[in-house]
Amino acid sequence: MKRMLLLAAAAALLSQPDSRRAGPQRHLPTGQLIRPAGRQIALDTFPMAAVLTPDKRHLLILHGGAPNSSLAVFDAASMNETSRVGLDGAWLGVAVHPNGHTVYAGGGASNRIREFTLSDEGRLESSRAFEVVAPQDRKSTDFVGDLVLSPDGRLLYIADLAGNAIKVINPQSGRVIENWKTARRPYRILFHSDGRSFFVSSWADGVIIQHDSQNGTVINRALAGPHPTDMVWREKKTSDEEGQSEQFAARIFVTLGNTNTVRVFGVSESKELKAIETINLSLYADSPAGMTPSALALSPDQNTLFVACSDANAVAAVNIAGSKSSVIGFAPTGWYPTAVRALDERQLAVLTALDKDVQTGAASIIETGSPAAWIDWTEQVRRNTPYTEQTRHIAHHSPSLVIPQNESGASPVQHVVYIVKESLPYDQVFGDVLRGNASSGLTRFPQRVTPNHHKLASEFVLFDNFHATGKSTLDGLSWSVAAIAPDFIQRILPFAREREEYLGDPAALPPAGYLWTNAMAKGLRVRNYGLFAVNRPLAEVNDNNQIARFRDPALAPNSARGYRGFDPEYLDVDRAKAFLIDLARMEGEKQFPRLAILRLGNDSNTLGKRSPQARVADNDAALGMIVEALTRSSFWPKMAIFVLEASGGRGDHVGPHRVPAFVISPYTKRGVLDSTFYNTASMLRTMELILGLSPMTMHDAGAAPMVNAFTDTPELKGFTAERPAVSLEGAAP
């Protein structure tokens, strides 16, 4: 009866409006608010780049979302669309010839460059296509990144993202005429004003490489910092440079996506590079990383630098007129700004990748002239962001004995178990008690398929307002273990939504590492079960050597070799059995790690031969087995088990990111409903406080810990698992 009343209360609550809920309201699953400044214009999927024609009459916007890539032309004065062409692939590069009528667009995964003719009226007509990699030679990793024209318009320079190279195409022949090695994951190509050399920002190596534009020879190599991405060239002496002993012919500004900063390099007359300044774009002085500066633009007079701060949903304005830069302020934008362009002396266009909860982009057209506006906008950006100066040091104000207020406190919980699942929406699991609410159109699994999810929710805490921050497996896993999806993951996402191999890319490392690296750095014992694992083929597996390698090498010595990583053809129940074998060993040794992380990856959305119902039942059964064993172990009195769906994006009737979540411990409340807004970062912050770890980014530093779910009085009663009343091996129809 208690369980029925609890679930009925949840159903009633879900029909009520709640301003704290993510979804149709203005809250994002990150907990941030979206209240963009300026006029909003709808765009296509994931706009990546924007360029003005030489006469400033037209703005071209490249949309990099797959499968809806496109190149659109807008009248720069009115921002009315004048033309649009669909592309079979597009990502970052778009360039306009000095003649103003020839346009080139980079092809991303299509590995080709498209050429167009642009009329005076802003109409695009397809002209030619250049193959960067011949179709018969292509690999799945081949990817065309940025492209630029040489200043004289004679040659195209292409960033080969996966090949770590710069390719040169002669547009007259349409052929690749040069292939020069550069640093890893070349992001942006920027020409010196004399055309004799160009600069490349290396996403993975943290450097800026200067190449001779005639033969590709490396002229300079300068250390920039973590994740250098966009660059702009300012060839104008600063207002206070005259008379100084050190003068530069130009300055290069570089965004560092894994920091809160822009790095400034001086370029001497002899083309030497020297780091001369770091511009801090933090909202507060000691903010952890998480602003993700990723795109740049100069004002027409080159005295103001505009910086898109992607994970802060803001654009910064920086006064660069003098030799020492100063931040003017921030303006709020839409969700995840990706590009910025000054349209004229007073209007700024900021492209954003997502429009609230749908997979389309937008542009904010912002009037930039008023200093007072920047003051007001800055305060709005701070109000939009959960992180404050206080939350970094005091995570909550509850008198909890279990969840310390900061990482220096102590907790009676000594063992944290973190179970990362896949992407089950809330309605799919608990939909059978929510029939009175609007349907999301998803298959809803009855209680006989997910009996353990239901039983855990009724016996411990039911969270009906928990939201996974990630949209897919790729970014969801990153958010779940790093409190951020780095700029590389976000920008490659439209082409690689479920390809986990990108998590091991050298450009995918998050700003502060992962939850486990922070735990190990503090000297805590960690044990990993299947996360970031790359499997051997089953035919090559034996009991002691089941996993070939890990996407983070630090996990290798701390991982259970008998626990298989993600594989939709492998039962989660068999993973649970492997864990129980290891748990028995630890019982014998009377040692359990401070942090144990398990991956249970099967759900209704994974591919494979089994039906969605069978996969979900398998996942439910495995979860029940693991929780039952842990609650009956000798470690249970000092344990907390956290269970998270890594990604949302499939949605239910409340919002696209609402998912089931569980906190199971002697110290969690029993049989209660917690409707506090929580998200992925909230769960990470709670675990960090228990383990004495500092937050990794400003997202977990600002997230609300799940304090309301805990009590200071432990109850040691364990959990008895249920067996789903369906076949775990059921074949797909």
Fold topology:
Elements: H1 2-14, E1 39-42, E2 47-52, E3 58-63, E4 70-75, E5 81-86, E6 94-96, E7 102-106, E8 112-118, E9 124-131, E10 144-149, E11 156-160, E12 165-170, E13 175-181, E14 186-191, E15 197-202, E16 207-212, E17 218-223, E18 228-234, E19 250-256, E20 261-267, E21 273-280, E22 293-298, E23 304-309, E24 314-319, E25 326-332, E26 335-342, E27 347-354, E28 362-367, H2 371-384, E29 415-421, H3 426-430, H4 451-459, E30 461-463, E31 466-467, H5 473-482, H6 487-492, H7 515-521, E32 526-529, E33 533-535, E34 547-550, H8 572-589, E35 595-599, H9 612-631, E36 639-645, E37 661-664, E38 672-674, E39 678-679, H10 680-691, H11 698-702
Parallel strand pairs: 29-35, 29-36, 30-38, 31-39, 32-35
Antiparallel strand pairs: 1-28, 2-3, 3-4, 4-5, 6-7, 7-8, 8-9, 10-11, 11-12, 12-13, 14-15, 15-16, 16-17, 18-19, 19-20, 20-21, 22-23, 23-24, 24-25, 26-27, 27-28, 33-34, 36-37
Helix pairs in contact: 8-9
Attribute tags:
four-stranded antiparallel beta sheet, 16% helix, five-stranded mixed beta sheet, Alkaline Phosphatase, subunit A, globular, 733 residues, disordered N terminus, 11 helices, alpha+beta
